[in-house]
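Lab notebook: predicted structure, single chain.

Context: the supervisor wants predicted structures on file for every construct in the current expression panel, including those that have not yet been purified. This is the next one on the list. No modifications to the sequence; it matches the entry in the shared construct table.
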Amino acid sequence: MSEVRGNQTSGGSLIQVLKRVMLAAAVVCLSALSARWLIRHPAETVLAEAEVTQPPSFQAMPLPVRVSPTSPPTATPKATSAVPSPAPTTTPSSPAYPLVHVVKAGETLAGVARAYGVSLDEVVLHNQLPDPDLLYVGQRLKLPGAASIPETHEPSPTPTPIDSAPIPSLSTPDEMIDGRWIDVDISEQRLTAYQATEPVRTTLVSTGLPNTPTPVGQFRIWVKFRFDDMAGADYYIEDVPYVMYFHEGYGLHGVTWHGNFGHPMSHGCVNLPTPDAEWLFDWASVGTLVNVHD
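Prediction complete. Output recorded below exactly as produced.
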């Protein structure tokens, strides 16, 4: 009996060992099969596990969508009651004539006529100008038939006369017997200053050329300027010294642009050497008689 029990015990132990060996073999086989499958499908397995076991770590940013430009909405005008527009008012036009233009420095008669839309001949005829090339600052020109007043720039300041005494009316030549007066001899091209009948100072001058003669007669100095701008159709001279106008735009004045005294040279004025013009300017006054003769 003891031998039989011993055999049974040994047989049971052997069965246990065999079970363990078979279990170990099964585990090894299963591990080998799993490893083989993983080797064949590694990526699919990892991704599948990641989708099952891990939440997404970020959210994909949406791509920008290009929007085609659209024209701005047009506002639909609201219906409004019509408001009658005010009737146009008419202003009476200013009369075309007369107009008076005051000559400023640097202006010419042709330029004034062109600015007002009238012809040069009409201006000369209406103002009875002896020489259209001779204008003086402050001269008043009547403009016949001018349609409108032209746009002008701000005028430059006009020199203020040194002496503005009233000009006395011209008396008989007997006045030369008493007082100061100036004689201009065109034939001799000479100017002489007189105190009554006594000559005080004399000098050679240059009077007007044949086409622009110096006016002959008895006149009086009507305004004086230490410096003045003179202009004509073909010239413009600034700062002419010691100017004394005796008839319209004709005057006695100094000259800095020539020294040919004793010969006609001017547009009608009486040209003096500047030192003599300065002396005469200080000696004579507004109203002094100027006797011009051939």
